[in-house]
């Protein structure tokens, strides 16, 4: 049992340097203390609550059209006919153009 170390090990915490932790202790020691109250400190409220209202106003004032362009039925039929004329499946066409099969299906269903 030469490999075992049976001596007791004692851990000692290092003592922290004394700092005034409390405002009152600091004032007693004569240190100038400036106190600022936290905005919504200790409350379960978001400090960004008014930003939501500002963002809503910006969105309402927006004039840009955000409509998503769709594939036309003519393109959908042309794609499908070209694929069939080359005797390809949707999966094969998807591999050839490096696109997912679901995208080819969406194009052919003019979504």
From TrEMBL:
GO terms for molecular function: DNA binding. GO terms for cellular component: nucleus. Keywords: DNA-binding, Transcription, Transcription regulation. Residues 79-109 form the HTH cro/C1-type domain. It holds the Pfam family HTH_3. Gene3D superfamilies: lambda repressor-like DNA-binding domains. InterPro entries: Cro/C1-type_HTH, Lambda_DNA-bd_dom_sf, MBF1_N. This is HTH cro/C1-type domain-containing protein.
């Amino acid at each position: 049992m030469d490999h075992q170390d049976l001596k007791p090990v004692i851990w000692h915490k290092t003592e922290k340097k004394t700092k005034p932790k409390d405002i009152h202790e600091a004032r007693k020691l004569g240190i100038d203390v400036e106190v600022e109250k936290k905005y919504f400190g200790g409350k379960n409220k978001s400090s960004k609550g008014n930003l939501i209202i500002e963002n809503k106003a910006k969105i309402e004032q927006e004039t840009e059209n955000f409509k998503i362009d769709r594939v036309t039925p003519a393109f959908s039929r042309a794609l499908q006919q070209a694929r069939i004329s080359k005797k390809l499946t949707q999966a094969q066409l998807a591999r050839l153009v490096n696109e997912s099969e679901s995208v080819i299906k969406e194009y052919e269903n003019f979504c």
